[in-house]
Amino acid sequence: MYNSITNWVQFKPAMNNPLYFYGDMYNLPYAIGNWIWQLIGGVISWLLNLLFPGNGLSVWLISDAVTNAMAIILLVIVIFAVAFIINITMIWEERKILGRMMDRRATQVGPLGYLQNIADGLKTFLKENVVPKEIDKKGYFWAVSLVIGVAVLTACMIPLSDRWFIVNYQAGFLLLFGLFALAPFMILVAGWAQNNKYSLIGGMRAAAQMISYEVPMLMVFAAVVLMAGSLNIGDIVHAQYDTMWYIVPQVVGFIVFIVAAVAEAERVPFDLPEAEAELVEGWQTEYAGMKWGLIMLGDYFRGYVTCALGVIMFLGGWMLPWLGAGPAPEIVFLLKVFLLFFVFAWIRAALPRVRTDQILNLGWKYLIPLAFINLLIVIAFKLGGMF
Fold first, then answer.
1. Which helix (H) or strand (E) is 26 found in, with range?
2. Domain-by-domain residue ranges, the chain?
3. Dist. CA 283–CA 74, nearest whole Å
4. d(C-alpha 383, C-alpha 310), whole Å
5. Residues sharing a CB contact under 8 Å with residue 232, sequence separation 6 or more, in sequence order
6. Which of 52, 121, 239, 334 is the most exposed place for a label (fewest CB within 10 A)?
7. ∠ CA 222-227-233 to the nearest 5 degrees?
């Protein structure tokens, strides 16, 4: 009997694959993808060999080269699926929190209302996909596609633990912030391409707001990297376990980051680019149907990224004090992310929208000096040999 039916039930990860190792831990999504392909590919191989004994395709399907390639493809699918579920959970969390704080009923569809977002997504998908005539089509479609795509890509690149990641890149933190900083330029192009004055004003507001708050956020980022001595996300997390969570020595930086993160994600009270009362939905005005739904989904992906970066930089990532990673570091990380997102939802429920000049003044006149003070504190700690 051909032995492929025994091969596919054995978990045999490709040990020479660069995606497989992260320090001393293995790449869990790659391992899952490897196992799935050994299951699917093994069954297909066994059936082919049963129908056509001795054919070369059966052997090729379960070869190391094909298994590695399919495992990488399935790794991406698994990573995206998990990021999507996290995003849906965060939307559900916010709607529940706002319902409680506003003393009204929140989501109702499914267990605890969890399926409400799926129902709303299907409803949005069925709406008419209207495209205005007098637009710059390339800018209209490509800009918003890049806004959504970069948000999803950045969310998928967030590691959940030492074993849950796409690839262990040494300059990973810098790459994440580089991708995160692309949004204002693409939003400005999207606002201009719609040939609508409200969309253009919304795009200009978004670009001005995001650039204003990226400066203090990058200064906080520099302070964290300086204290950890590395641009590697795993090294930053482990450095906090070896010393203390960076929220303790950098409490000023943490406050600056929270305010800047809310502004970067265009959330209340800094949602001027999408002010419905004065801009009819801002830079998104001419995007209808599922295009608008994907823009909203991309905004929540950006919210997830900001919360995840806050957990990585200040709250020890997937580590717990004195306990380390534990048996389920991914759960620990996500619980911290959901807790930080609770603060974002709380701010949305408690504070009214501010004016554009107030937003810009807060970023340039207050957050940048505070971020500079935080950087000086870190330098003093490093010179004193405390970190």
1. strand 25-26
2. 13-83, 130-383
3. 35
4. 25
5. 168, 169, 170, 171, 172, 173
6. 52
7. 75
